[in-house]
Amino acid sequence: MKFNKLIIAGLTMVSLVSCEDYLSVNGTSTVTGDKYQEIVAKNPEVLGSTLSGTYLYLASWNAGGADAHDDINLMGTLHATDLMTEDMVQTISHWFTYDYTHDNRMENYRRPSSIWKTFYTTISQANGVIAAIDQDAVELPGSKLRPYYGQALALRAFSYMYLVQLFQNPFIGEPDASGSKIDRSLPAVPMYFAKNEVGKETDYSRNTVGDILDMIKADLDEANAMLTGFSRDSKINIDQSVVQGLLARYYLMIGDWDNAAAAAVSARNGYPLMDKTALYSGFMTLATPEWMWGFDHNSETNSMYASFFSHVSNLTPGYAGLNYAPRAIDRRLYDNIPATDYRKGLFNGSAKNTEQANAGAQGPYANLKFGWDGAWTMDYVYMRASEMYLIEAEALARQNKMTDAATALKPFMALRDTAWHNTTITVDEVLFQRRIELWGEGFAYFDLKRLHKGIDRTYEGTNHRTPDGLLKIAAGDVRWTYQIPLSEIQENSAIGKDDNNK
Amino acid sequence: MRKLTLLVAGLFMLCASAVYGQSRTISGKVVSLDDNEPVIGATILVKGTTTGTISDVDGSFEIQVSDGAVLVVSYVGLKTTEVVAKKGMVIAMESDAVLIDEVIAVAYGTSTKKAFTGSAQTKTGEELAKMQVSDVSKSLDGAMSGVQVSSSSGQPGESAAIRIRGVGSISASQSPLIVVDGIPYEGSLNSIPTQDIASLTVLKDAAANSMYGARGSNGVILITTKKGSDGNAKVNFEARLGGNMRGVPTYDIISNPADYYEMSWESIRNMYLASGSTYLASGIAASNELIDKYLKYNIYKGVPNNQLIDPVTGQINPNATQRKWNDNWAIDPFQTGLRQEYNVNISGGSDKSSYYISAGYLEDNGYIQGSGFERFNSRVKVDQEVTKWFKAGANIAYTQTSQDAPSAGGSDYSNLFMFSQSIAPIYPIYLYNQTTGEAILDAEGNQKYDFGDENGRPYASKQNPLSYLGSDIYRYIADNLSLRGYLEFSFLKDFKFTVNASYDVFNFSSTEFMSPTNGNAIENGGTGSKAMQRYAAFNTNQLLTYEHDFDGHSINVLLGHELKMDETEVLSGSMQQFYDPTNPEFANAGTITDLSSYTSGYNIQGLLSRVEYDYSDKYYLSASFRRDGSSYFHPDVRWGNFWSVGASWRMKEESFLQDISAIHDLKLKTSYGTQGNDALGAGATPYLDQYSLSRVDGMPSPSFAYRGNPNLTWEKSNNFNVGFELGLFDRFDLEADFFIKETNDMLYAKPLPPSIGSPSWMYTNEMDMRNVGVEIELGATIVKTRNVKWDVDLNLTTYKNSLTRLPSDKADAIAEDGGYAVGGYWRSVGGSLYDFYDYHYLGVNAETGSPMYTVKNEDYNADDFNAVGGLEHGQLADGTYFVSQTSYASRLETGKSALPNLYGGLLTNLDAYGFDLSVQTAFQLGGYVDDSYYASLMHGGEYGQNWHKDIFKRWTPTNTDTNVPRVQASSQSISEGADRWLTSASYFSLRNITFGYTFPKKWLNKAKIRTFRVYLVGDNLALVSARKGLDPRQSFSGETGYSYSAMTTVSGGITLGF
Predict the structure, then answer these.
(1) Which of B497, B576, B691 sits opposite A36 (nearest CB)?
(2) Which of A307, B148, B651, B951 is geometrically suited to a Cys-Cys bond with B163, CB 3.0 to 4.6 A?
(3) pLDDT higher than threshold 60 for residue B16
(4) Cβ(B101)–Cβ(B110) under 8 Å?
């Protein structure tokens, strides 16, 4: 009977489509976690591309997720802190204005949150790489995975080095009983490890400064070992020289002068210094032989207006160049640069520079250091050899080896100021060279903090912005330290609201 | 009415016979009260005799009566009427609503209103078509109880968000399921023209929508498209022509340049004061720098820049009277957009088949340049009874929509709606010589736009959103093909087997192009993005029903299976460096900046069953059970069970109510059941971790992008409903429902500590929530005579939303404070989902003009506060501690929720002598919105940014009794986010007025025209809210933004049928 046939046909249809497989659907817009694990397990060398993703993350924007054009991840941190010092002038109020006026540190503001997320996401991604690597196998000297492991550790240490200085003020003016200028007992930041790291436990609370410093040191040492013999394809990757550079920074920070000098020398080995031509080329090419580490932007990776160059370069048609908020050098610092020093030419003088096309580049003391390549693909620099010469010289001068210090700095100064023939040099003179050489590259704030110095922008003849830029802030002032972001306080049960910085 | 009349007429004509025997003959006419049309074939009997007659095609009759005789007039579907016989009498018959039971669409079939145990509301296509919306969702505002509508954008073609019985979810979709002609619909509602809709039914409770278990937790909207009926072919033609205008005005911003200059001067003067200068020195500095350093533009002729404001008095120079330009950003960009709409349909059929064919065209231009919506639609629907036991039908629709939708959201400067209200009234739209005020022309002699860069405008340099509207392209084209069909087999007397299937295909192409001639994209030589998307959804269900009646018992059993699979395929890319600045295609560009493609899919299947039983049309019971599996969940947890039970009792049918004529209807109903929700929108596999890839050095580089949760499973809602329907005096109808809707194991995007790294959130099944509410629908027929009919309908909904379970890890916080904060909301057991948590604004410090915010006693630390430069703090007379910056203040529970206390609509229809007038309104009482737009207009002194006129009330040394702090440039603490900006969300909106005239039949008959109506219609005619410019309808969560504000539409139209 045909009705029965119909029912059978209908029921067959029901049973046919009821099979479970039908409910498993794959999307192809992403790589799912299990697929990722499978690919990595089959060929762990693809972890190199995971690291590239992290390097890209540091050089991109919007870590805070609010689409703010001043949220430019690593460079945003460096630039915001540069603006908190005396050396850089934001001539007109715009993006970053509250960094310049020291009013951007509170828990509910965007800046602490962007910085926090930038570094903790980097840490999380580094831990992801570590977690994908067999701990025992990577200890074997021949393991192909050592460079990935080493880079991940270095990125983690790099991140904690910033976090511990930004979310605490570990530096005290006078040395304590042990001679240290660091208070290791102060509360710092949460400490995350990969799950497979033996004997290391993630601690969500505010670990002490000492614990964080020890972790940085351990990670850098291990990274140094892991990266021995690693020859990188691109300077976006960290290699052993970069780890030596990070160690030099670390030793400089904690005041271990011998090791600082040694690491700096080791780091810069093989990197010729920028000469006048290079200095005047806009600080935008990773291929510059002096550059040790940075990021190589292209038309896909650049973030245009929301980029470092948009804010810092008066020659770029970005926020600075369009005269929204040009960046200038502090007049006092500029005036102290000898006329014979090539670096004086990286800035306008006291008069208006009408030769420049961009309105932002015409103002007095406007910086011309950072350039424009015509397509928003300017590269970022994170580390270069000059810094290493300066670390070595400072470390030597700190030990009262003034002559050695001068000798160490000689090759560097020869390419900066042909009239420089000093045979001895003081710590202050080295620090002055640091301020000029590394202007705008994200060092000034960290130097002030470790040196326990304040700022005074109110001096006679100041070119700082009137009136809101005219600040005088002492060392140790709460304004030098960010509060932990509110979202962390709210969601991390190990940090209560009373645990935040004042 | 006429349809019924025709149907029965033939029958009676055959057996009609004239009866004689009395002395006098009178003539009269029988008409229907509803439409004043003649009733053909009504039986007219002389009471107490067998004398009678039948009315003819004009409704006329002649009958012989004796004096004082009473006529009894009856007709199927109309109330039997008794009248005293008179010469030339006109007998108006009322329709008998109880007799003709309304057929309503329900899950997997139809039901009658009397038999339905659930809670649902229906709107007819006719009612919906009054609204001039390009998306039907926008016509539901205030239309029925339990339905809340939020319209975030007035852009033509945009949909409104719909919530049924309150917010039902946190992170998963809160939108109802849309079902068209029995099958879930996957596309945008803007592809279904209202003219094709026969009815729209909203299913609200468990009994009504548990059958859609898997996806029914947010309610279900059933749309039934029109079909043909037997009889001669009918043609309907409709045309509408009108215009669109801005529906919500701008905020009350400063419009006089002099006022703006004075206020800016004061804010700069105060900045100098704050840094320690004297009043005089500060005033001089402010006067000198006002234009040259800060504002750059001096709109007044003949007044030197540094003499615009008197440095001592702060007053504008009296010579500042002549302006260099008269551009007005707040007004000039907005124009009237044309709206035209034409629809034609042909329908007809025989007793075995019916057809409906329609076509339509809509052009709906926005009120800004470059914004509009165009639709071409066509539909063919055929139903055929092939044999006695086999029926089949098909419904094929093709719609093409084309939308031009320039960026109108967020705080981007290209958003004209933000820009035009935020820019100070001193800046022109076009470029002028700053000294002479002479317009500057380009090579073709057209006025050049002012991008601000040439003169250093501090507000949005390099930007001119009006210029982009002409050169940038934001075009979205969709081809929607919707195929629906069914086969229905009847067998073994009581059985029926139905197969429904649909295939919907949406091809979507988008072009976004920023011209190299403009703002954002100059340096890149233009930037363009294109995307091609293909979305195809296959839905089918197979239903076996058994229906049997015996001895007053009636039973109906349904067994079924349903499956749905959809697939999305996307190809997208971006390029820069365009050669021809008007051509957005990649063939015209040089540099690739992004290229991507992917596929995604979603499958679901369910087994369903339902039993319905009723006894003698008095007692109704229903029960359903359904089991669904979703591809969104891990195989171990993907199946969910959903069920419902319902009962109703038609009390009016009981003997004790039969004779109470005051009550014409009384029904009680109750139901309980569960539904699910899986709508996450997190890719195909939300239970797995996901890595997204970027290109670095030509190699793909993965980054962790999504944190999967393998335990993720159905969010379930339990719904209880009890209600009644009551009809009184044939005039009043009252429906009331009480509901409890609980959502358990809510799909929740749980925030994690950001130190865990991005992404610092994860979906979980956590938290429970409850909505308890009452819905009332009240209908009243106030006047009902032969020529005049006046109805008023009121619907009201009130509900209370409360959280009943919080995330487990918040236990500590809960113990301490009774709740915890998430973003700007406070979450606590008993509190609503959107309870604002914010800094509390105490007003202005009368001595300094600084704002004051509450600091909790335990957070107050004078020593710490003293260490902060410029921070004011202290204690008020009532003991409250205050501080002048929110960073040091305490966030508090504000006791204010974004959810309203009451919402509803008042609708009225008046028909008189062929004229019809209807008015629809929508309103909301209670609730708060964060008026962030107003906040941004109350800043302390952002150079070049406009102020709301409330800034005139700011604190000054002579105006200390105020609620508005002083102005001071470069001070972000003057105007910070706080409960100061929470504003009442109550509103009243005049949603629609329609006024029409239907020409009398007798005029039209000669021209062979069946029906002809002309009308005028206006949409969104007025909005009353707490503040001019504020539209509280933008979101359910109390957020407001710089959106394309709602549109007022006024049109005239005709409806022609023959």
Answers:
(1) B691
(2) B148
(3) no
(4) no
Tokens 């020409």 belong to which residue? Answer: B999
CA atoms within 13 A on the CB side of B357: 6
Strands B177-180 and B220-225 turn out to be parallel
Across chain B, what does the average pLDDT equal? 86
* β-pair partners for B575: B528, B592
Q: Is A120 in contact with B576 (Cβ distance < 8 A)?
A: no
Q: pLDDT class for B8, splitting at 50, 70, 90?
A: very low
Specify whether the CB–CB gap between B155 and B85 falls below 8 A: no
Interface check A423 vs B, CB under 8 A: no
Q: Within the 791-820 window of chain B, which residues sit less than 8 Å (CB to CB) from chain A?
A: 809, 812-813, 820
Chain pair A-B, CB pairs under 8 angstroms = 245
Residue of B nearest to A29 (CA): B598
DSSP B211-280: GGGGG-TT-EEEEEE----SEEEEEEEEEEEEEEEESSPPP-B---HHHHHHHHHHHHHHHHHHTT--HH
Interface test with B, best of A39, A206, A299 (most B CBs within 10 A): A299
Q: Are β-strands B70-75 and B89-93 bridged in parallel, bridged antiparallel, or unpaired?
A: unpaired
**Residue B21 contacts A where some CB pair is shorter than 8 Å:** no
> 């209200």: which residue's tokens?
B421
Contact at CB, B699 and A52, closer than 8 angstroms: yes
Residue A18 pLDDT exceeds 60: no
What 3-state class would DSSP assign to B817? helix
Query: Please, are residues A124 and B490 in contact by the beta-carbon 8 Å criterion?
Result: no
Choose the closest CB to B757 out of A17, A27, A120: A120
Q: What is the predicted ipTM?
A: 0.92
Q: Give CA–CA dist A211/A189, Å, rounded.
A: 10
B410 in contact with A, Cβ within 8 Å: yes
Q: What is the pLDDT of residues A239-249, one digit of tens each?
A: 999 999 999 99
Q: Which two tokens stand for residue A296?
A: 């190589």
User: Which residue do the tokens 């369903």 mark?
Assistant: B608
* Structural contact between residues B241 and B150, judged by C-beta atoms closer than 8 angstroms: no
* pLDDT (tens digit per residue) in B575-610: 999 999 999 999 999 988 889 999 999 999 999 898
Dist CA B467 CA A172 (whole Å): 56
Whether the bond between B759 and the residue before it is cis, its omega within 30 degrees of 0, is yes
User: CA B645, CA B612: separation in Å to the nearest integer?
Assistant: 10
State which amino acid sits at residue B391.
K
Report for A377-381, B60-64, B192-196: range of highest mean pLDDT: A377-381
* Closest-CA residue to B564 (of A364, A234, A25, A360): A25
Give the best-scoring range by mean pLDDT among A22-36, A429-443, A453-467, B898-912.
A429-443
B1005 touches chain A (CB under 8 A): no
Reading the block at residue B177, the tokens are 């399921």
Alpha helix locations (H) across B401-455? 416-422
Interface touch B758/A124, C-beta < 8 Å:
yes
Give B4's pLDDT tier (boundaries 50, 70, 90): very low
Give the β-pairing of B851-855 and B103-106: unpaired
Of A136, A123, A112, the C-alpha closest to A501 is A112
Q: Over 80: is that where the pLDDT of B408 sits?
A: no
Higher pLDDT, B165 or A469: A469
Q: Which of B259, B309, B307 is nearest to B426 (CA)?
A: B259
pLDDT at B12 over 60: no
Inspect the interface and report whether the beta carbons of B690 and A30 lie closer than 8 Å: yes
Give the mutation candidate from A491, A495, A497 for the B interface (greatest B CB count, under 10 A).
Answer: A491
Provide, as residue numbers in chain A, all residues whose Cβ is less than 8 Å from the Cβ of B684: 25-27
Confidence of residue B7 (pLDDT cuts 50, 70, 90): very low
Q: Which of B491, B522, B755 sits opposite A492 (nearest CB)?
A: B755
Q: Which two tokens stand for residue A20?
A: 């479970």
